[in-house]
Amino acid sequence: MFLLILLLITISSLLLFWTARRKSNYWKNRGIPGPEPLPIKGNIDLIFGKNPLSLQLFNWSKIYGRIYGIKHGWNNVLVVSEPKMVKELLVEKFEYFHGRFLCPIVGDVDTNKFIHLFFAKGKRWKRLRSIANPAFSISNLKRIMPIIEDSIKININLLKEAKSSGKCVDLHEYFVELAFDIIARIAMGQRDSKQFKSEYCQIAVDAFAYFERCNTIEEMVLNCVLFLMAGFDTTANTLSLIAHNLVFNPQVQKRLFEEIEEICGLEEGEMIDYEQLSKLKYMDAVLKETLRLCPIANDVVNRRCEETTTLGDITIEKGTYVSADLFTLHRDKKVWGEDAEEFKPERWLSNDNIPTEYYYPFGGGPRICIGMRLAMMDIKMVLVHLLRSFELERCSETFVKPNLTGQ
């Protein structure tokens, strides 16, 4: 009996090793380059290595080109930064690539009741998206501007107190607190508080009342958490990146301040309006250029092939994952020019030769970030008040300019 058990274990181990070995050679057998994977683990050690994922993909693209394959455990992942293929993936063939890369613990996104908008796909995603869309319309965003401005003014006063100490101020900490406060005021205020009695907060009441009518309790709670977590983190990080760029490019900061003074020269007690924000063309250029170099959506723009199809001239089998490497695409010199890795907001001030169809800071296609307009509005309002109150300068604790080596 012992020998029989030992034989079964040996045979099972050999079968497992053979299967793992065969699966690890999936891309090699198809003639698609990529880093050598290990059986079972694939390239996970490098994916979650010392370099941030964006930099790891960027470095791989230098070795293997715009199209290469990696193994995420057992999963086959095609990484693409080829412009036309990215557009095909996100926009033109959305019906084939509408699912996301998910951890197995999530389960079946069609039947699991604990699924929110980010994870959902197919008809369920369409239902959740259509429910949430009205809350992010321009007319509704205009209504919540006073709430956002009040939160910003409180944060600016806190920054003034911190500055008076004479010590270096870590802006990122304040941006995180500010972004969290804004999204919490809009979406998570107490129902009986003065906030909820304000006419400006009615948008949140209306939106989540509609969620309550159309969603299960689980969906409603999870979508509230999703909007809260996604809403503050990305906004705070983008503000920090912009502040960093302004510190290292004082001429850009000066020009941006002058534009703000010209268009938003507010008197005491006056508030910013949406039309003023839309006139801030140079600020728009600074924001776009920051997001070009560091797209906040880069690590989450992946899709699952739901039916076998093609991308370019490559056949993508059902169940294969495709990751759009936006960080690399946004720095592609063949797309953006020889200065692609330089911070140059001026490139956005002319419509000549700007490849906007290959620009995806918030993802792209039908699954583009639903909170994009809100995030852009938040960021612009913060910058108006921040630069009218302070000049941003380097100090002894300012981190050095990011490089692309991960060092």
From TrEMBL:
Summarize where heme binds, as residue positions.
C369
**Record-linked InterPro entries:** Cyt_P450, Cyt_P450_CS, Cyt_P450_E_grp-I, Cyt_P450_sf, Insect_CytP450_Detox
Entry similarity comment: Belongs to the cytochrome P450 family.
Residues spanning the signal sequence: 1-22
Q: Does the keyword Iron apply?
A: yes
**Record's protein name:** Cytochrome P450
Q: Which cofactor does it need?
A: heme
Molecular functions (GO terms): heme binding; iron ion binding; monooxygenase activity; oxidoreductase activity, acting on paired donors, with incorporation or reduction of molecular oxygen
Q: What keywords is this UniProt entry annotated with?
A: Heme, Iron, Metal-binding, Monooxygenase, Oxidoreductase, Signal
Q: Which domain of life is it from?
A: Eukaryota
